[in-house]
Amino acid sequence: MPNDKNMRGHAAVLAANALWGLNASIGKTILGELSALTVTTIRMVVAALVFWTFSLFLPKEHVHHQDMLKLFFAALLGVVLNQGMFLFGLSYTTALDASIVTTAMPIITMIIAAIYLKEPITGMKVMGVFVGAMGVFILILNCQTTGRHPGNLTGDVLCLFSQISFAFYLVLFRDLVLKYSPITICKWLFIYASVCFIPFSYADLVSIDFSTFSVALWLRLGYVVIGSTFLAYICLMSSQRLLRPTIVSMYNYIQPIIVALVMVMMGIDDLDWMKAVAIILIILGVSYVTLSKSRTDFEQVGKEL
Q1: Tens digit of pLDDT for each residue in 69-113?
Q2: How far is the C-alpha of 244 from the C-alpha of 126, rounded, in Å?
Q3: Among candidate residues 231, 185, 216, the one with its CA nearest the CA of residue 16
Q4: Taking the domains of the chain in order of start, what are their residue ranges?
Q5: Is the whole model's pTM more than 0.85, yes or no?
Q6: Where are the alpha helices (DSSP H) in 228-272?
Q7: Where are the beta strands (DSSP E) in 159-270?
Q8: DSSP per-residue letters across 72-137
Q9: If you placed Cys at 103, which of 5, 136, 175, 239 could pair as Cys (CB 3.0 to 4.6 Å)?
């Protein structure tokens, strides 16, 4: 049974993916008014300012100069490529398709973790990924049957690459997450990400007349920056400190559920038995992976023998 520490990790990663699931729907509406590059740059720069401002009220944490280089590459994989390609992909495809593509990450993460961290690929873990994927497949089948949500191959591929980069980030840079606080890591990730994006979007940014933005647009941008970036990344970092990469990645299966529920609430779609079955399968899949044995569990058994 999971202990209190693990439960906090599950709650944190669930919250992060719920925030990202809402972001797919909200972000899609923003992309009808602003370019993906502009939205991404605003997101990176404002989030960096928020993280740095927040860090001023916390105990100062020194980052070793060797880790600064690691943080740069972590920013490339975990923020620049992940969030950049996702928003560009979202500008081409639908919110539901984008969230469905994110569910490829558990399989990718499981393979990378097995190679790099020597995490065992157990039968229960494979079963969990398979059951969760079946739930997602049912969601896809349901949407294709209705014919209301046509996607786009280019957008879907970009979203897929964003998940591949994030899977590498989860596995390769977990040591940084264990070493420094979430705020310290995030303030450096987003300052590096801002430096990467600003040269390409500067001309677009200076040409924008922010005074023409409606209140609704400001609120949606506020959610993207505060909700799906500041809060979501703090939750993600907190969960990474407590859970294995494969478990963290499994919660990506929650995002299509969030998008589907938003569509139902907005009257765009209906909640039928197929969606209910899909949700149950996704939850079961996450449970199977959570209960699967880790490398540490196997090593402990070996010591006892």
Answers
A1: 999 999 999 899 988 888 888 888 777 677 767 767 777 777 777
A2: 15
A3: 231
A4: 4-118+151-251
A5: no
A6: 232-240, 245-250, 254-265
A7: none
A8: HHHHIIIIIIHHHHHHHHHHHS-HHHHHHHGGGHHHHHHHHHHHHS-----HHHHHHHHHHHHHHH
A9: 136
